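Hypothesis: this fold can be encoded by more than one sequence.
Test: take the structure tokens below, design a sequence, compare later.
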């Protein structure tokens, strides 16, 4: 936790809803949208407003049914 923010917290930055994808101990954060578009590499903590803290980690899993689903 840096300055009260964690990875993948949903924040408001300059009229854009985004997620924290990287952080520095100095209080700067890397921000991206959910679809992966880079918003800022070093946003200041004073420019962020917490919308929602993360509840889970974002993960991508592999399924043995993936090939079956692709055929449908």
């Amino acid at each position: 936790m840096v300055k009260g923010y964690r990875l993948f917290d949903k924040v408001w930055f300059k009229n854009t809803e985004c997620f924290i994808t990287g952080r520095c101990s100095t209080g700067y954060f890397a921000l991206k949208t959910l679809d992966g578009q880079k918003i800022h590499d070093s946003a200041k903590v004073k420019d962020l407003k917490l919308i929602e803290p993360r509840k889970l980690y974002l993960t991508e899993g592999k399924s043995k049914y993936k090939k079956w689903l692709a055929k449908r």
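Residues 2 and 25 are 6 Å apart (CA to CA). Helices lie at 66-71.
Hypothesis status: open.
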